[in-house]
């Protein structure tokens, strides 16, 4: 599913930004 891919990308982006805040 595309949604799963989006969540994976968002997790990587947060990792790079150093923000681990979950919404």
Automatic annotation (TrEMBL):
This is Integrase. It comes from Heterorhabditis bacteriophora (Entomopathogenic nematode worm).
């Amino acid at each position: 599913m595309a949604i799963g891919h989006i969540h994976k990308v968002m997790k990587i982006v947060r990792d790079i930004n150093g923000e681990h805040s979950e919404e």
